Amino acid sequence: MPPPPPPPRLLAGGDHHPSPTSASSPEHPFLSAHLLLPSPSPSDLPSLHLPLALAFSFLADPSPLPRRLLVVLHAAGGRYPAFYHAFASALLSLPFPLLLPHPRNRLLLAASELARAAAPGFAPLLVSLLRRLPFPGDARLLDIFHEHASFLADEEPQLLASAVFAFLRLLAKNRLDPAPQCLECSDCGECKNAKNLAGCRENLVSFCASVLRDHTQVCELIGRDLVRCLHELVLVQEFHKLWKDSMLGRAAEICRIGMPGWCTAMAVSPEMETQLLFMMNNVKWGNQKRYQLWFARKHLMVPGGEERIPDIVRFICCGYHPTNKVMQSGVIARWAVIGWLLTSCNKSYVQANAKVALFYDWLFFDEGKGNVMNIEPAMLLMVNSVSQYTDITNMLLEFLFLLVENYDVRRKEAIAECVRNAFAVLVKKGVVPSLDILTCCEKLSPMLRQKLVAFLSSASPEETEKTCGQPIDEASKAMDLNNRVCSN
Amino acid sequence: MAHKGPDAPVVSGINSGSTVKLKDLVPAATNSVNTTFIVLDKAARAPPPPHGRADAREETCLALVADETAAAHFLLWGAERDAFEPGDIVRLTGGIFSYHRSNSLVLRAGRRGRAEKVGEFTMLFVETPNMSEVKWVRDPGDPRRMVQEAVVSPHSQVFKPLQ
Fold it and tell me: Is residue A328 part of a domain?
């Protein structure tokens, strides 16, 4: 008798990856469960191996998906309250970037099925998929959110807001196309029909516009980064109209809300997060070069990669606040990582957006509500660059003044007040001993230094108008900024 | 069940099962090195040997690898050259640390060992000492053993440190 065919694979990997039979492969627990329950049926409900075995069959069984798997899924979910959770966690435990096309499409199908049933555990699964955008076959994710938008607005508003944020970021220039797929699941209709979001830009725009219009309050949970996203998309007609008709009046209010934690996570993929956190928690000063090269090669030097830098900057400012112990342990600091990211921008609009991202919390800083850790990296980057990289300090300070004067001309004075506040709190909390380090620094451009002194000491609006109202260099520079910030 | 328990030797019978750090590498003609390292850099591919037929399995490429104790040169053979990139964390089982061709001291999987990618990025490393840049001599007291005589270079002379 010929030996039975080997079980199908979930993950890519040839001779130089651990085989699924090796305990170090993430596929191993799935395969073990599959060998125990090769064809899950309702009689297997009490088995502890069922979540993994069912997940394996769900991802790997050839097309079309056997109906009995859905029956088992919902029978188990109905009988054991923790089952759906265990099933969703099993799917989450697989390294998504390594999933083969067929299991990846099936994972989306499983997410869709769990969402349809509003099964416990479906939200983290969808969040994790949103963080992986763009990927081949990602259009199904839009279908899921489109189908359940009203339900989610009531029951999982944070999830719906996450989707809007993720989709808006994807719509920003050059990010829609997933990395080309070299492996295809060619013999299956399910995979052949999987669509990419790149092919349905219109649907994506109309979905975001409709949620922004119909569930404005849900979208406002995103806070000020919603406004930042929309500014980058102002040339898209639908968003322009929406902005003019309904968001403009609310913008000031929305900007008072800082970026919530669940939103900072959406700004980067889980792989980026792991690597950034490793750098900022473990890698000592002076040893970061190679890690930066690897990170850049993997995440930045790919199509749409550079465009992610502004969001990475937001993640670092708002999403990761190291403890004092970590800060004193000699590891590479947040401001240094951001400095490196700024110098990694080749496109000027990306660099402008990255600087907006860096100073964004300064523009709306409120001592009572704002966190000094959000504004600390920009300050330390300016201060620590003074001696060796004065260009960076000059560039950042000049940009900060451009923002104060041009970001929202109708609220210029309020923004100036917030920025003054930010400077004051940075000194008060001891991030810098005093602002002399900038105001008395010979190396800094004398004009900027003067401007800073005047800006910090101006108490009344009139005075600010006098000292900061004049163009920094020439009016064209401000125009240039406006174009760069808003035109992509 | 198909698996043989945690850390079952991939190729049975050739390795002792214990894991070493790179700083404990000693040149020896046995394929018994089990270790985990991160690939720091990869050289351009070596041209195929001038004599004989071009055989992809025989073509090599030198890489700089390291862990938190030391660095070493690792020789990638055949398909390994494309399987590993800088930043990859690799587990080597049943590898050899010995002299290859013109006296260069390299770590490699050899015909009976195995190198597997087990992760990426999240591993600390040092570039000094580099065990491939050490001059070894036979231990006068025990000629079967090699001992360090001198450090040829504190870091790799093939892959210069980035700082």
Answer: yes
**Residue ranges of A 311-330 with Cβ closer than 8 A to chain B:** none
Determine, yes or no, domain membership for B158. no
B134-139 and B142-151 strand pairing? antiparallel
Q: Count the neighbouring beta carbons within 10 Å of the beta carbon of residue A350.
A: 23
DSSP state of A199: G
Please tell me whether residues A108 and A160 are part of one structural domain. no
Are B38 and A282 a contacting pair, CB within 8 Å? no
| Distance from C-alpha of B66 to C-alpha of B126, rounded to nearest angstrom | 6
pTM: 0.90
Residue B58: pLDDT band (50, 70, 90) is confident
pLDDT at A484: 40
pLDDT band at A246 (very low <50, low <70, confident <90, very high): confident
Do the chains contact at A289 and B163, CB–CB below 8 Å? Answer: yes
Residue B124: give its domain's CATH number: 2.40.50.140
**Region of residue A320 (phi > 0: left; psi between -120 and 50: alpha; otherwise: beta):** beta
Structure tokens at A146: 């489109």
Q: Which domain holds residue B85?
A: 22-44+59-151
Backbone phi, psi, residue A200, to 5°: -130, 45
Range of the domain at A102: 1-12+23-130
* Overall domain count for chain A: 3
Which member of A18, A22, A291 has the closest CB to residue B121?
A291
Q: Which residue has the tokens 């001992």?
A: B147
Q: Are A412 and A363 in contact (CB under 8 A)?
A: no
Contact status of A4 with chain B (Cβ, < 8 Å): no
The C-alpha R_g of chain A, in whole angstroms, comes to: 25
Could you tell me which of A414, A405, A417 has the C-alpha nearest to residue A253?
Answer: A414
Task: Indicate yes or no: CB of A23 within 8 angstroms of CB of B3.
Answer: yes
CB A224 within 8 A of CB A258: yes
Residues A229 and A297 both lie in one domain = no
Q: Which residues pair with B115 in a beta bridge?
A: B92
Which residues of chain B form beta strands (DSSP E)? 33-42, 60-66, 71-77, 88-100, 104-108, 114-120, 134-139, 142-151
What is each CA distance from A66 to A41, A69, A144, in whole angstroms? 11, 6, 21
Cα angle value B145/B149/B154 (rounded, 5°): 120
How many domains in chain B? 1
* Nearest-by-Cβ selection for B10 from A22, A275, A287: A22
| pLDDT, tens only, A97-118 | 999 999 999 999 999 999 999 9
Give the tokens for residue A478: 């401000």
Which of A19, A35, A276, A290 to substitute to test the interface with B, most B CBs within 10 Å?
A: A290
CB–CB of B1 and A35 under 8 A? yes
Residues A233 and A165 grouped into a single domain: yes
The two three-digit tokens of residue B66, written as one number:
């390291």
List phi, psi (to 5°) of B105. Answer: -95, 115
A17/B86 touch (CB, cutoff 8 Å), yes or no: no
Same domain? A159 vs A206: yes
Together in a domain, A355 and A399: yes
Chain A residue with CA closest to B82: the answer is A16
CA neighbours closer than 13 Å in the CB half-sphere of residue A66: 16
Substitution target in A16, A293, A329 with the highest count of B β-carbons within 10 Å is A16
For the question of an ipTM over 0.85, the answer is: yes
Measured CA to CA, the distance from residue A463 to residue B134 in angstroms comes to 69
Q: What are the contacts of B11-20 at 24+ separation with CB within 8 A?
A: B11/B93, B11/B94, B11/B112, B11/B113, B11/B114, B14/B94, B14/B112, B14/B113, B15/B93, B15/B94, B15/B113
